[in-house]
Design goal:
- It is a single chain.
- The chain is an alpha+beta fold and 580 residues long.
- It has 25 helices and 14 strands.
- The strands form four sheets. Strands 1, 2, 3, 4, 10, 11, 12 and 13 form an eight-stranded mixed sheet that branches.
- Helix 3 packs across helix 4, helix 3 runs antiparallel to helix 5 and helix 12 packs across helix 22.
Length: 580
């Protein structure tokens, strides 16, 4: 403290008393902070700008990390995450900064999301550490709290990890903690990045008087942001079949992907059935039937099949698969059906796609680069993002879309000392010292204070609605996979294989979803029989006539007489005003 006070005495006087008091609670803060390490911390401050903290407050947080890391210096710690821009920044920059500042040798590996799940699953099965900590989707919350392999962070921060838990972590500032909280009320994972699955469209085309006039004449309502799937389908048809060319270029009214690949499963488990309206009302997830079509009673999954009260093969779910296939084949570029998620992602930036119903905001930064056909010379995008339209089975009060929340996860079987060192890094990557800069790099906000910062007010016009969405109450309807899913790795792999059968025509949409429901229930039946889940394991309902469940309130819902009601749109600028 003496050295820091000598160097920054005047600045420290301005630091808030609450911040000083909270950090001073740490054991021996400053005493262990060597002058050399503080010099390194000071040199990194320029990298960590902008920040919601003052530079003096940032130094105080970094000083706490230096002190807390004292007994772990020289250790080699290895963590892993999927490969997206946010994690690339962590791996290339924040891991290096953490290593220099704390003396812990931190390696942050980047692998594909499917590989992260595979490593995680292997470690859960063998109880043999592969990594010291994982960033994995909060989609696994139902898995983690049932198997008992993951440490509830609520317990860890108060108990074993209390001496290495940042006093200024400020969990209330995180936007996604509800996604990582189990039915027992405990937080199991710490959000590191999050991005939503929204509707993307060419704002400039939608504003053109000639196109607006032609659309109104043909469909009887205004060209705008589609509120329902009927309008989305009309707009897709309009651009693909009637407009066809803009400025001499062939254009399409829809973009998607359809290759038989694990990413095809995400296309559906990331709330596609919920967007159609297959599940029940409830935020963050439908109760008792969620967006995977799994019914839960008293926290126990009881079935996926409509004959058990589930909704995987319900009329709404089958409708959602049928529409996906119809739109892919009729309105998307011909090559889309042979693409994976990562291959299809950059296509709208090439400038010939009018809209995309299933678009991840993780692509925002790559879609806003200067020189792209979809970016104006002044740097503002020609496109915008907006809330996703919903299908005819959707009801007010249901979730409307998916939010990916990559979250730090610690295993019980890990070495306690290595776990503490990894937990320090997890907090460093999410701390207020670095989180605002990280958010500007990857555009995957996790803190309310970051998205509300003036730097994002200034940058908002360049980001096509991202800032407005995250500042709006609408974002609450975008959530991750919920706690109804008892074993994400085992169940997720069933989806892409069955969906692919419908895409290729080897199965009808109904047949594909029937098969998926049976296979999903078979996995849950094995989990029930084996008794491997510590709490809230599956207890499958007996099969009964599907009509019994259709006659009950909520999901599964009986088939509608009309699955294509009148299309509805809203003007984008009016939509944004309503959020404000």
């Amino acid at each position: 403290m003496k050295w820091l006070s000598k160097q920054y005495g005047a600045g420290l006087a301005a630091v808030g008393a609450a911040m000083i008091g909270a950090l001073a609670a740490g054991p021996g803060v400053s005493q262990a902070a060597t002058e050399a390490q503080m010099e390194k911390a000071k040199k990194w401050l320029d990298e960590f700008q902008p920040s919601t903290l003052s530079r003096e407050e940032q130094l105080r947080e970094l000083e706490w990390f230096i002190d807390a890391a004292e007994e772990f210096r020289g250790m080699d710690i290895q963590v892993v995450s999927e490969t997206i821009a946010t994690h690339e920044y962590e791996s290339n920059t924040l891991a290096k900064a953490f290593s220099e500042i704390t003396g812990i040798n931190l390696t942050h590996d980047l692998i594909q999301e499917g590989d992260v799940i595979e490593k995680l699953q292997t470690e859960m099965q063998t109880k043999t550490p592969i990594y010291d900590a994982y960033v994995n989707d909060a989609d696994l919350i139902g898995t983690h709290f049932r198997y008992g392999d993951v440490i509830p962070l609520s317990d860890y921060m108060k108990g074993e990890g209390s001496d290495v838990t940042l006093p200024t972590l400020d969990l209330d500032d995180f936007m996604g903690t509800s996604f990582a909280t189990a039915p027992d009320g405990k937080l199991y994972q710490l959000p590191d990045q999050q991005f939503a699955n929204l509707y993307w469209f060419r704002y400039d085309w939608f504003q053109r008087p000639d196109l607006r006039k032609r659309f109104k004449e043909r469909y009887g309502y205004e060209l705008g942001v589609p509120v329902n799937w009927s309008a989305y389908e009309d707009i897709a048809e309009f651009f693909s079949k009637h407009v066809k060319e803009i400025d001499g270029e062939r254009v399409y009214g829809h973009m998607d992907y359809g290759k038989k690949d694990p990413s095809l499963g995400w296309r559906f488990t990331d709330a596609w059935l919920s967007m159609a309206g297959a599940g029940d009302k409830g935020i963050p997830n439908g109760k008792p039937v969620d967006e995977w079509g799994i019914r839960v009673e008293d926290c126990h999954p009881v079935g996926s099949d409509v004959r058990r009260g589930g909704a995987v093969n319900s009329p709404a779910a089958v409708y959602s698969l049928r529409k996906y296939i119809e739109w892919l084949k009729a309105y998307a570029p011909p090559e889309a059906a042979g693409m994976t998620f990562s291959e299809a992602g950059p296509v709208p930036a090439q400038g010939n796609v009018a809209q995309q119903i299933f678009w991840y905001t993780a692509f925002t930064s790559s879609m806003a680069e200067e020189g792209l056909p979809v970016v104006n010379e002044d740097g503002e995008p020609k496109w915008r993002m907006a809330p996703s339209p919903h299908g005819p089975y959707w009801e007010e009060g249901m979730k409307l879309g998916y939010q990916d929340v990559g979250s730090w996860t610690l295993f019980k079987h890990a070495d306690p000392k290595r776990r503490k060192a990894a937990w320090l890094y997890a907090q460093f990557t999410t701390s207020k010292t670095v989180s605002l800069k990280k958010t500007h790099v990857g555009l995957t906000p996790i803190r309310e204070s970051d998205i509300q910062h003036e730097s994002f007010t200034e940058r908002a016009p360049e980001l096509g609605g991202l800032v407005e969405f995250y500042r709006s109450p609408a974002r609450l309807q975008w959530t991750d996979t919920g706690t109804n899913v008892p074993d994400y790795p085992k169940l997720a792999q069933l989806w892409w294989q069955n969906v692919a059968d419908a895409v290729t025509g080897d199965e009808t949409p109904q047949g594909a979803m029937d098969n998926l429901a049976k296979e999903q229930d078979r996995v849950m039946e094995r989990l029930e029989r084996a008794g491997v889940q510590e709490t809230c394991g599956p207890k499958l309902n007996e099969l009964r006539d599907a009509q019994y469940w259709f006659d009950q309130p909520g999901a599964p819902k009986p088939k509608l007489d009309n699955e294509k009601p009148q299309g509805q749109t809203v003007a984008y600028d009016e939509l944004i005003k309503s959020w404000q």
